[in-house]
Amino acid sequence: MSIQTISTGRRAKDTIVRGLVYLAFAIAVVPLVSVVYLVIKNGAERFDLEFLLHSMRNIGARDAGGGAYHAILGTLEQVALASLMSVPIGILTAIYLVEYGGNGRLANAIRFFVDVMTGIPSVVAGLFILAFWVLYLGQSFSGFAGALALAVLMMPTVVRSAEEMLKLVPSDLREASYALGVPRWRTIVKVVLPTAFTGIITGVMLAVARVTGETAPLLLTVFFTDSINADPFSGPQMGLPLYVFDQAGRPNDTAIDRAWAGALTLILIVMLLNLAARLIARWRSPATGR
Amino acid sequence: MAKQIQVSGLDAYYGSNKAIEDISMTIEPRSVTAFIGPSGCGKSTFLRTLNRMHEVIPGARVEGKVMLDADDLYAPGVDPVSVRRTIGMVFQRPNPFPTMSIYENVAAGLRLNGRISKARADEIVERSLKGANLWNEVKDRLNKPGAGLSGGQQQRLCIARAIAVQPQVLLMDEPCSALDPISTLAIEDLIAELKDEFTIVIVTHNMQQAARVSDRTAFFNLAAQGQPGKLVEMDETTNMFTNPSEKATEDYITGRFG
Ligand SMILES: Nc1ncnc2c1ncn2[C@@H]1O[C@H](COP(=O)(O)OP(=O)(O)O)[C@@H](O)[C@H]1O
Ligand SMILES: [Mg+2]
Prior knowledge:
Chain A has helices at about 10-45, 50-55, 70-100, 105-120, 120-135, 145-170, 170-180, 185-210, 215-220, 240-250, 255-285. By secondary structure, chain A is mainly alpha-helical. Chain A has one domain (about 70-285): MetI-like fold. Chain B is globular, with a radius of gyration of 18 Å. Chains A and B meet through helix 7 and helix 8 of A and helix 2 and helix 6 of B. Magnesium ion binds near residues 43 and 44 of chain B.
């Protein structure tokens, strides 16, 4: 056997496949870039302090001005409440599945239902809360009702991603902890969860990002308002996706501009939340600082 | 500090599969006992029955008796957590906690089991790291992650972590098999020092290592694949390596199988 140079055929194949990979990447990026570009370009028109600090109260159908403060506030409150409900339950469920349930019947049943929940269309989650919370229990439309619907949507994502992350924690570490005479629950709290922390945060952020832009469940649960309502537990609230939906449906340019600015705000909020999560994750993982 | 372990008629199962059968032996305090034998004969399994780590695996169970001086480790009502505090363990692969610094790793056993003062923790960390011959190498970077050390240093860190909770017995499952020769030597020296204070049991694949570090050696074997492992014989290491009483032991030690 002698050492050979790379044949022309192989070189050509390499070039072709490389080209295809770049092409596929470009095609995948085109919609993303064009959406971001359009939203920034059209949203910049009205993305100003007035927009961020004012509601739509007393702004007539054709008036310029007005803003999304009431919607931003509503979205932040609804997503925060939804996270407060779904993240602890989701993580505890994942802990049960990985640390206690194993392959038992209950654990597999939970996995099955979580998978089914993942596939629930968001409008169905909204309908469920409408039927259960508003119609059956007789509660009013409110930011909290919206948060309930969002929590239903977030929960399965949190469970599944946290489960995957907990499974990645090597059993070596659990055993090392047991061998030091540390009880199981403390091992989970002090060793397993911190080790999986970064991954769990990422999963939670994905879930948050997913529900922040949901419109349909809000439509059925928080109702609708043009005024500021800071109390998520009583009375109709607004949400940013709902705001965009509403403004975009109006015929005049001033409303369309507001819709674009709303969309830009929504994207920025999700980005900021992601950034915050990354910072938290970096701050919490000393193992990278050699 | 160090205590004697007496095992009688011990069987260990994985589900319905019996991994080791009818093992009886006495492990003397303040000495090093080596377990040798071909792969799969149940050395690790037996070692893990000694501090009730075996039952951590789903479906795994143990029958028989293990006495630590006068305490029956498998008596009903005995808390396995307290057994593991008394009998520490070092694993084959170094496994420092990745989210913790060197200092936190050593202090982990104390801190995870309750509050202790900073001064007391400092003292124990220093003593344990010195005990594991690691202090001089890490004293200037105690707050750096434990995972940033070399393999041999990580293993000594794990030993420091294990002795920090002041166990009576230290179990080591092939602690050098993932290490280079220099690190191996460092650990062997350490074992020789630690035996003044602890009862040490070490599983090893390396005959020279067993001969170098241990006072007594136990040879395990299995009759055939799929059969449970058994204790063939146990004796002073010097006797075992010069004139073993069983043919199988001699064959294994001289490298004719295993
Ligand atoms: N976690 C486990 N689950 C099921 N069987 C196991 C497990 N660990 C070990 N065994 C079985 O137990 C027997 C003894 O294994 P082990 O104690 O690891 O042997 P050694 O340490 O001497 O190489 C082997 O047949 C092995 O397949
Ligand atoms: Mg083994």
